[in-house]
Amino acid sequence: MAIAAPEQLNVSELPAWGSRSVDCFEKLEQIGEGTYGQVYMAKEIDTGEIVALKKIRMDNEREGFPITAIREIKILKKLHHENVIKLKEIVTSTGPEKDEQPAPDGNKYRGGIYMVFEYMDHDLTGLADRPGMRFSVPQIKCYMRQLLTGLHYCHVNQVLHRDIKGSNLLIDNEGNLKLADFGLARSFSSDHNANLTNRVITLWYRPPELLLGTTKYGPAVDMWSVGCIFAELLNGKPIFPGKDEAEQIHKIYDICGSATEEIWPGVSKLPWYNNFKPTRMVKRRLREHFRHFDRHALDLLDRMLILDPSHRIAAKDALDAEYFWTDPLPCDPKSLPKYEASHEFQTKKKRQQQRQLDENAKRQKLQHQQQQHSRVPPAQQMRPGPNAPAQPQAAGHHYGNKPRGPSGGPGRYPAAAAAAGNPSGSYNNPNRGQGAAAGYGSAPYPPQGRAPPYGSSGLPGAGPRGGPNYPHGGPPYGSSGGGRGSNVVPGNRNQQYWQ
Amino acid sequence: MLTGGEAQHRQPRLTEPIILDATATPRVLTILSYVLEKLVSRNDRLSDGGGSAGNILTAFHGVRSPAISLEKYLERIYKYTNCSPACFVVGFVYIDRLVHKYPDSLVVSLNVHRLVVTSVMVASKILDDVHYNNAFYARVGGVSNAELNRLEIELLFLLDFGVCVSSRVFESYCQHLENQSPPPITLISVDDVTDISVEDTHNSSPPQLRA
User: Fold this and answer.
1) How far apart (Å, rounded) are the C-alpha atoms in residues B70 and B37?
2) Does residue A47 belong to the interface with chain B, where contact is any CB pair within 8 Å?
3) CA distance A279 to A269
4) Does B157 sit within 8 Å of A11, measured CB to CB?
5) Is the pLDDT score of B47 beyond 80?
6) Which of A54, A202, A326, A429 has the fewest CB within 10 Å, making it most exposed?
7) Which residues 41-80 in chain B show a CB within 8 A of chain A?
8) pLDDT (average), residues A356-380
9) Beta-carbon separation of B162 and A77 below 8 A
10) In chain A, which residues have their Cβ closer than 8 Å to the Cβ of B79?
């Protein structure tokens, strides 16, 4: 072995990752449940610094070390930017923890492997979903500029994020926005000649070229997602909430016009073009549809949501758009209001409990009425009655954020969706035993609650002999278990934080 | 010299098959096995065939060297996993990084097979959007699933998760491999055995790790 790249001579980098134990941290509480493990808020004992610990789930023996974790670690190791989440180190736990089986084979890493991140208070979706939340124009500009700056940095470093959505944009109380969850990210070469998987990006934010099955793509895929988020911030709700690929592409065509060879040369050659062939030709009506946006915002959006990826605006050019340079200017992040920390994981759990109580109450009420002719008003008799105000305990997680239960005040979104709030996580997260899209069981939530599915159609499955893996899990779509079930892409806006 | 994009298109690349035939073996396999064989035979002499004390690669040691030649082993991995040829270059980069980082640790006949299958598997996870899982690599590589998982984590931590290989480094390794005097080209057929073992025994019990 003769040659050494220059970097390799540097053996003094300290501390070596994996050399410290998780015992250096005190877990404070669980703040998220990701696709490959739990996330905890924790305090570094020596320094008192608050961090987020993301546990890497190692329980799928057939898969070994989760590819999402390897990708995320290797990419975050080389990205250092104020708008990209910082991976501080990797720590291991040698001994079995209380939630673990003891390691029978003496595997020193069996106890667990954790990624240590800087702690962030919110994510964009969680923040936007707060009752009564309205972002000001300078605030939206401030977030958008940070998003584009971070993304531009990724693209310059030849990294595609491939899962840009609100829940992967973390925000701290200084108003800083950082891109997170690089579990689907990958490096790309600028010639776009590599074959990449088209099974990435959460459905609602997935660009048309991926929906049409292209395997040669570049940074423009992320810019489509940015356009969707931008419009969502201005619009107050997701703009393309499709429930499967077909509906997704048609929702896009409906606003952006049907994909034709004239506006998008080569589109008819894309693998699935004919599967989703528009039944009638629709003209682009984006500007009319969003005519209530201000002119500069609309100009920028119009250049982001362009069907043909080769004409879609790049992050760098978007940063030069008039929008960011006209009054009102983007505000200084530090001037943004500080919000009480809220983590969807917790608020979701509380809502779920509340709903359970409500349902039990309803059921009891019915029985009760049948038996006793309701001598006492049910709402008072049943402790968490359906008409009772949100229970105090629902409010009390110790960041002290407000209850977000069903009765938690006016939402930013239409009542049903806001209140539904995606009670239990993703549509197609097999770990939760839920089916694809429709699946909240008995809960009366609309199909497009708050969780854009990654998709649920039975697209062509995996290859031979059990099939190769797709980056985000075995059978690439849906929830048919098997293979890499536990790594299925974060299909869920609310479940996030650090999937 | 592979200097730029255009040059790469004119001359056949290392990772391309010698014969323009999808089933042919890419040259990198032949060269890589040659390079590794050379290294191993030198190190075996140096270390008396065994892992010296303090060898950080102990986890990759078997009790005996596997019977299958490195060349056949690489072909086998390539044939069954269908990973990109580039994975073999990147796997080689990982092994090279290890021996530079831990100069006392030698790649010897006892550990080279496990190092290779683990490195190529990790490279494939990194490079290929579509790839087989560890269980499949374990069958191809003739080790148990549990052992391969352990080796994977071992490798990742030994590398300090430094699994990025820039295109510049990649090209320089390609160049380095190209410069090795190529072994005589033989027509190769991969044995159609479906099960091999680089484990120490032929039963299915997990191999014993040396203490």
Assistant:
1) 7
2) no
3) 18
4) no
5) no
6) A326
7) none
8) 56
9) yes
10) none
Of all residues in chain A, the percent with pLDDT exceeding 90 is 44
For residue B164, give the nearest of A13, A65, A78 by CB distance: A78
Of A78-92, A347-361, A437-451, B44-58, the one with minimum mean pLDDT is: A437-451
Say if residue A93 is in the same domain as residue A58: yes
Place domain B31-180 in its CATH homologous superfamily: Cyclin-like (1.10.472.10)
Q: Does A324 touch chain B (CB under 8 A)?
A: no
- Given the cut 0.90, state whether the ipTM is greater than it: no
| CATH classification of the domain holding A226 | 1.10.510.10
> Does the pLDDT of residue B81 top 70, yes or no?
yes
Q: Which among B107, B131, B167 has CB closest to A468?
A: B131
Residue whose C-alpha is closest to residue B134's, from A469, A486, A481, A92: A469
Q: Is A320 a catalytic residue?
A: no
Select from A1, A463, A469 the Cβ nearest to the Cβ of B133.
A469
pLDDT of residue A377: 35
Interior CA angle at A160 toward A155 and A162, to 5°? 140
Domain residue limits, chain B:
31-180
Radius of gyration of chain B (CA): 16
> In b/e form, how buried is each residue of B25-39, taking b as 16+ CB within 10 angstroms?
bbbbbbbbbbbbbeb
Active-site residue, from A129, A163, A181, A358? A163
Read off the pLDDT band of A19 (50, 70, 90): confident
Chain A, nearest residue to B146 by Cα: A61
Residue A277 is labelled as binding a ligand: no
The letter for the amino acid at A250 is H
